[in-house]
Amino acid sequence: MASANKPINTDVPEKDVFALHFLQSLSNLRRQNTFNSPEKTNDRVKKIKKVAYVSMARAAGGTNRLWSRALLRRAAKENNKVVRFPRRKKRVTCLRRRRSNRRDPVEEEEAERLRNLVPGGGGMEISKLMEETAHYIKCLSMQVKVMQCLVDGLAPK
Amino acid sequence: MDVSEKDELRNGDTTVNYDDSSANNPHPDWRVSGSNPVSAPIDSYPTENLISSSQMMETLWYDPTNVQAVGYGGFNGGGNASSSSNSFRGNIDRSLEMGWNLPNLLPPKGNGMFLPNASSFLPPSMAQFPADSGFIERAARFSLFSGGSFSDMMNQQQQPLGNPESIGLFLQGQCPSNEVNVGVAHNDTSAAMKETNKQNVPGSGNVSEDTQSSGGNGQKGGETSSKGFDSKKRKRNRQNSEADQSQRPQQSEEGDNNGGGDKKRIDEQSPNSQGNKTNSGKQQGKQASDPKDGYIHAQARGQATNSHSLAERVRREKISERMKFLQDLVRLQQVMLDEIINYVQSLQRQVEFLSMKLATVNPQMDFNLEGLLAKDALQLRAGTSSATPFPPNMPMVYPPLPHGFMQQTLSCMGRTEANGWEGDLQNVIQINYGAGDVPPDSPAATDASLPSSNMKVEP
């Protein structure tokens, strides 16, 4: 891209979408497992966490975002499922290395940490990585809000 | 005669020398005076790396009529400014006029008289004037001289160069754009002066001065007309990078002392400038890091990686833009990526914590929306993609559910709403039910039902 004048589009759906997806996943989870004994709380926690991320990925970007795609793929791998994403024109460019050197040792150090945090950040340029991070942050915060509300709502009085 | 004059100048015997040599030699002592009585007019110029001498020269160009006297006064070492300046003024005016008129009058060889002492300051520039009438024409061509052409200067001694850049021209040669070289240039010029005196080679000394002043290129140009072009070069350098200048002296070395060399240099300069302008950004970055070494190399590097540097710059702009966006998003004050990383980490930790809480709060993981969601999900997936946000109108398609059940769920959601949510969850429920007007039950009625009991959903 010659110019970076395109405004960054990091729109995130409303909270409803997140809530819906989350609850959907939770209900699915509940259907899958009957009551879990308390000893397996950790497992439950993990499941819920995974569900949270997956639902967030689905709600937020679906497959339009690199991080959501990576997240979903990772989750599917854990379930031994194969996830197929519809081929898009702007395929993940991790396979294609642009000629412009994207490695700047000064920035790369910090970008490395970011890459570890953001799912799917390994194959991205720094600029793309930052865009994904912005969207990821938005979605994360939204998801956190949803979960918080849910917890508050379900907390025993 | 020239040599002797130079020696006198070097010694600091300014007054005499000025009187004698003003006509012929620009005064090397212009450098000498540390104080700059001309500072006032000089300050008006945002010229960089001004040394006193360069400042004086600058003022000279700036306002030949007025500054000259002051500048020359400064040459006296700060003393006798007024008196000497007056006397100098006449001399300077004369010399200036001569200098400017020289191209028309003096043969190219006349450059030698001027150049030797043109210690890369105005004197050199002035000396350059006699270089060529062609030079003057070319000089007039340059946009930087838009303030006034040399011809104007020659004729009227107005403020032909109100443009600081034009002044910067000379400064460039003497004071390379790199701040690093300010002191160096000063020393270099003085050294160059001596060299020129020794060499007494027309133009060669000047070239050497320029090259040295430009940061120790170590080049000793051997061309008389190089000075004139050096000014142009300086201008270019000012625009682009010093690498150009370094190259030009190199080129000038090979060229002739006269117009032939000039023309060649000009031709070379034009492509260089074009190529360099795109690289200016990058090369400026290089300049700071390559005060002395990079002159020769930066040019080649700049041209070779023209597209790369451009792409790099674009890339950096993109990155900075995204960074700013992230900053606004995360409400950070600094440009530290670390804070962004911390924020992301904290968010992820929050998700984990909340999921843990969810798991403990709701051991059965029963959710009242289970049934309702099941149906919604079906229609959701059929109708829309997950990426699209919910339109408020969607709920119409949802099948109705028992009102009581609805109330329970709504109450649960209503509780959450009461807890501080903006009612989005409730909206979700409402949306799902297609009726945005289902009021939540009073919390009291559903308190007891909140725990798992009402969570059971019969699809």
Number of strands of chain B: 0
Based on Cα principal axes, name the global outline of chain A: globular
The count of DSSP E runs of length 2 or more, i.e. the number of strands of chain A, is 0
User: What is the makeup of the main sheet of chain B?
Assistant: none
User: For the report, how would you describe the main beta sheet of chain A?
Assistant: none
By helix and strand content of chain A, what is the structural category? mainly alpha
Report the mean per-residue pLDDT of chain A as an integer: 69
Order of helices and strands of chain B: HHHHHHHHHHHHHHHHHHHHHHHH
**Global outline of chain B:** rod-shaped
Radius of gyration of chain A: 18 Å
Helix run count of chain A: 5
Low-confidence stretches of chain B: 5-23, 25-64, 66-86, 105-125, 145-151, 157-164, 166-290, 371-458
Question: Averaging pLDDT over every residue of chain B, what do you get?
Answer: 50
β content of chain B, as a range?
under 5%
* H and E string of chain A: HHHHH
The structure class of chain B reads: mainly alpha
Overall helicity of chain A: 55-70%
Uncertain segments of chain A are 1-5, 93-97
Q: Helix coverage percent of residues of chain B?
A: 55-70%
Describe the protein's architecture and organization.
The complex is a heterodimer of chains A (157) and B (459). Chain A has one domain (15-87, 117-154). The N and C termini of chain A lie far apart (55 Å). The radius of gyration of chain A is 18 Å and the shape is globular. Helices cover 59% and strands 0% of the residues of chain A. The model of chain A is unreliable at 1-5 and 93-97 (pLDDT under 50). Chain A has 157 residues and is an all-alpha fold. Chain A has helices at residues 15-32, 41-60, 66-78, 105-117, 126-154. With 459 residues, chain B is mainly α. Chain B contains 24 helices and no strands. In chain B, helix 14 (226-239) packs antiparallel against helix 15 (242-254), helix 15 (242-254) runs antiparallel to helix 16 (259-289) and helix 15 (242-254) packs across helix 17 (294-304). Chain B starts with a helix and ends with a helix. In chain B, 55% of the residues are buried. Residues 5-23, 25-64, 66-86, 105-125, 145-151, 157-164, 166-290 and 371-458 of chain B have low confidence and may be disordered. At the A-B interface, helix 1, helix 2, helix 4 and helix 5 of A face helix 18, helix 19, helix 20, helix 21 and helix 22 of B. Chain B: Residues 12-25, 198-214, 240-252, 269-287, 449-459 have a biased composition (Polar residues). Chain B: It is found in: Nucleus.
